[in-house]
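RECORD CONTENTS
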Amino acid sequence: MKRKIDQVWSSFWAAGISNPLEVIEQITYLVHLRRLEELYPGTDGSAQPLIYQGATERLRWSKLTNEAPQRMLALICDDVVAWLRDLSYRFPDHFSQFKSVRFTITTPSLLMKVVEFVNDIAVSEAGTAGAVYEHLLGKMDGSSGDLRTPRDIVELLVQITRPGRADDICDPFCGTGELLLAARQFVERSGVGGASPEGVFRGFSAHSELLPIAEMNLALHGVARPDLRSVDPLSRDADDLGEYSLILANPPFGGHYDYDRLSDEVCSTCIKLVRRSHVQIAVAEVDVDGYGLDG
């Protein structure tokens, strides 16, 4: 399977798509599309949303992938993307990860190669599917380091904090979900009989394009419907984010942040930190713990 991942990766590069995050994003959306038909079959009387009705019946993975390559590409670009965005607004508790969906595959030949790869993933086998996705995420290069926490750092943080079954755990900068996944796996390994966690497992991300990737990473490791939200936890727009017994995070250090967007609580904390360090600051720029804050 790793060889197939490498082949698909090379096909993206040959088609002019070389950004690792974009490659993973496009593969992820197609995996989501396949899983939708399995998770939401559309039977009457089900408590789940009926997403395949009338005109959307043709958007089932089993029907889409039986179309000719050119026709399948047109359907995805013209109909599937709009449908997924509509689902994100109609059923936000189920499909919020599709709010910013985009599809950048432009050639039928590349689409067919990716579809064949997606069909080969044993999505119902958590161990196998999770390992495949981990290898895929490992394709991110150093330029994406602020999005994906290295595995050894993840394991170190989990071993230090030792999350418990009753802990309410939050990663406010969840990236591709590695910390939340590792925390959950630690709890399951530590519990009696592999008992599932009882507390909250929640992730926030200011990067909406990462949510489908984080959700797929967790889902393919057996975490059904993870609680991931498109929220910038530092901004004024963030509502009550809740209370947690454990904050497990690797904040995205570096870059600049618009001072006017910061919440009052964060601004107050920054000012206290700067005063405590006895640093004279200019109004133009403040740097706190690696964040450039423009004001």
About this structure: Residues 69-90 form the longest helix (22 residues). The longest strand covers residues 201-205.
